Amino acid sequence: MAGAPAGGAELFFERLTGALLHAGDTVLPVIRRDSARAARLRAAGASPVELAFGNPLDLLTGPRLAAMLRQFGPQVAVAWMSRAARFAPRGPWVLVGRLGGFYDLAYFQRCDHLAGNTHGIVEWMADQGWPAERVHYLPNFVPDLAGTPPAPRSSLGVPESALMVLALGRLHQDKAFDVLIRALSRLPHVHLVIAGDGPERARLTRLAQKQDASSRLHLLGWRNDTGALLAAADVLACPSRIEPLGNVVLEAWSARRPVVATSVHGPSELITPNQTGLLIPTEDPTSLADALASVLEDKSQAATLAEAGRARYEACFAEAPVVALWRRFLASVEKP
Question: CA-CA distance, 279 to 108, in Å (whole number)?
Fold first, then answer.
């Protein structure tokens, strides 16, 4: 896996590695150099190998990776996203490319099979010409966050009596936190907490000032206490313009929190409207504000959405069913 230091796909790689090891499988994680990630993998019981996974002029990673795989002798090698697939060599092992988005499939041309974490991605891969029997649905799981003690509102800058909307993710245009801040200006008694960092931070700060909402916007930076933040929140907002899956939706369901999300690819596949969450159009701060207000003001609706989301999480996105699905796939997949 050669991904970024932070991100949903990268985090799930770490979670799945630990879960497979805990289940008794032998796993060798090979990662782009990242001391923090390597430390977390070691804490999970793995012995990670770090390689450069550099630009196209990196002539060393490919041969080193091939030699490492030959020595390890895996039954299956999983190339986790595009950069890893570009370096992944063919061999006696089954090579699986794992996609968490609509990536350029040219990177995966050496793969024997492809796996996507949504049904939509799987259908898209087949539409691109991959044989249906060689594309597979393998979902993500998130930890069980129910019962996590809430983060003290005072530590977030939020009054104890205030209504609190939480958003999680990189501060990037794809996440549309600018739309959420515009919605905040229509919710005068609501505080918005965003956990994440990225290139949009300064622009979002200026926008909140312009919208006269800066006193009710709290940008926390990256946090590792997702469960505590969700427990402190009244509702999770996912206003994304682009969201191939939406791990944050799964995390909110796990924590029994209602979800309001835009009807982009991932959330619209996950959420049954008005049952496991509310879906609203993209780029529409008024609809977003109205949906958030509806959940915040109607505690019965909020509880019903939260419980239905929790049931969907337990059935489809908890660790046990997802790891069982991955293990069956890895034990049975064969070269074409």
Answer: 33
How far is residue 49 CA from its own chain's centroid?
Answer: 23
d(CA 133, CA 59): 34
Q: What is the pLDDT of residues 81-123, one digit of tens each?
A: 999 999 999 999 999 999 998 999 999 999 999 999 999 999 9
- Contact (Cβ atoms closer than 8 angstroms) between residue 30 and residue 1: yes
Q: Which residues contact 146 (CB under 8 A, 6 or more apart)?
A: 254, 255, 256, 310
pLDDT at 6 > cutoff 80: no
In this structure, are residues 193 and 223 in contact, taking their beta carbons and an 8 Å threshold? no
Cα distance between residue 312 and residue 307, in whole Å: 9
CA dihedral sign, ordered 23, 26, 30, 35 = positive
Of residues 113, 109, 117, the one with CA closest to residue 132? 113
Identity of the residue numbered 280: I
> Which domains are assigned to the chain?
8-141+319-332 (3.40.50.2000), 153-317 (3.40.50.2000)
CA dist 146 and 90 (Å) reads 42
Q: Which residue has better confidence, 245 or 322?
A: 322
b/e per residue 137-170 (b: at least 16 CB within 10 A): ebbbbbebbbebebbebeebebeeeebbbbbbbb
Q: What percent of the chain has pLDDT over 70?
A: 100
Which residues, in sequence order, are bridge partners of residue 93?
A: none
Mean pLDDT of the 177-206 span: 96
Assign 3-class secondary structure to 108-137: HCCCCEEEECCHHHHHHHHHCCCCHHHEEE
220 and 226 in contact (C-beta within 8 Å)?
no
Kindly report, residue by residue over 10-53, the tens digit of the pLDDT. 999 999 999 999 999 999 999 999 999 999 999 999 999 999 99
> Helix 35-43 and helix 8-22: axis angle, to 10°?
30
